[in-house]
Write a structure and sequence with these properties.
Elements: H1 11-27, E1 35-39, H2 45-54, H3 61-71, E2 101-106, H4 110-121, H5 125-130, E3 131-136, E4 139-140, E5 145-150, E6 170-176, H6 178-186, H7 189-192, E7 198-203, H8 209-214, H9 217-221, E8 225-233, H10 237-250, E9 252-257, H11 259-264, E10 275-277, H12 283-290, E11 292-299, H13 304-315, H14 321-328
Parallel strand pairs: 1-2, 1-7, 2-3, 4-6, 7-8
Antiparallel strand pairs: 5-6, 8-11, 9-10, 9-11
Helix pairs in contact: 1-13
Length: 329
Amino acid sequence: PGTFEPTPCPRDVEWFLEWKNIVREQYEGTSRKPLLIDVGANKGFTIGFWQSLLDVRNVDVMKQLAQRATLDGITYFCGNCCDCMELLDLPQGASNVSINARIIGFEGLPLNAKALQKFFRGQSPDVRERVHVDIEIMAVSSAPGKTKFLSQNMGNENGRIATDKDNGKVVEVLVTSLDTYFKNHLGNAATTSDDFYIDVLVTDTEGYDYQVFRGAKDLLAARKVGVYAFEMVSTEEENVRMLTELQDDFGFECFFPLQRINTALNDGSLFVPSMISFNKASTAKVFSMQGWMNAICIHRTTQTKLHRHFLRLSEQGTDNIPGILTKCL
């Protein structure tokens, strides 16, 4: 409980090192800061990873989160998503440079959200000045309102909206949409100002990611999101619909990291690309192989350098994806 052991980065997060190089160039010489949004902040390990990546003077934030979690009564801290922090051991030079930024996390489960607020508000003023973190105690969906979350212990990774089948206690939670939230804070500037831009938007909402997407269409139409990553499950048609809309209507190209397939091919006879593009792939076979996966969608015109980087990753290795997947299955 409350321990942290760093391991090499999986494919679905190591691309952040290239992103950091690119975003440093984009913001150099300006007073603006990159903005990163985490919908479904959970126990804070995505935000901790971002803060450690962006602020090289604060690389121990994940360990600090784990220690804080133990003091706050969270009986387990790290899951499969928080074991990547060997940034300084990777060859890319981005890990040696700090970038000032702002992060906003949304978490609907009140116990988790309050613990995160306590932790990030308790950081030193110089840390908060460099990479400022705000935690909003609210869920995100297609429209503002209220809903009921299943009341779970602090630290539970599966905070979700309660259903009629749930017999446990429930807690009422405020709901916003991303369009509503930023319009309330910025007015029309959220979709018209050149000074507002969401560099990275990540959602992990236990199957409600399409609803979050529906509530962000004004921002997407205004090209205010550079990278849009979300968790998807192979059995949900909404995920494929969301991918299709992001690509056809909003100018993105979506990719899937294939580290699980690379791990399966341990005999060295084949090499699978680091990423596979939704445009090219035998998508159904990828789904059936991996079960759930993270989609990473890059805007083709506002993030041209990062898009080229993902295209290079998707072209490495062999193009015989169906054959590879047949061998793996």
